[in-house]
Design a protein that fits this description.
alpha+beta; 2 helices; 40% strand; four-stranded antiparallel beta sheet
Length: 104
């Protein structure tokens, strides 16, 4: 019984990380075409994503939009902070990256 509860707990926790995906309630990428080969790309992580992971996922989306490479015109990195009720005052950072790019 303990084994089943342990596996269930692990699967629930593992499901919390935002993977590479289009934006949903738990995070992901958003992009907007600003012109021909010109985009604004955002990747919003959640409390289980590191800044490094968000950068990797942001870069994956930028490479999908610009397969021959890109140049960052503007770039911002940041974190939103949220407080989780019922977790004894634990707060979580939600890293994000937002940048305007032009395809090569």
């Amino acid at each position: 019984m303990k084994f089943i509860l342990s596996i269930t707990g692990f699967l629930l926790l593992a499901g919390c990380a935002t993977g590479y995906q289009a934006h949903t309630w738990s995070g992901g990428y958003k992009d907007k075409a600003l012109g021909e080969n010109h985009y604004y790309v955002e990747y919003l992580g959640n409390g289980t994503n590191s800044t490094e992971t968000v950068n990797i996922y942001w870069d994956m989306r930028a490479k999908e939009l610009c397969p021959n490479g890109y140049t960052e015109v503007t770039s911002e990195l940041g974190k939103n902070n949220s407080f989780a009720a019922g977790t004894a005052g634990v707060s979580f950072d939600h890293p994000w990256k937002k940048a305007e790019i032009k395809c090569n």
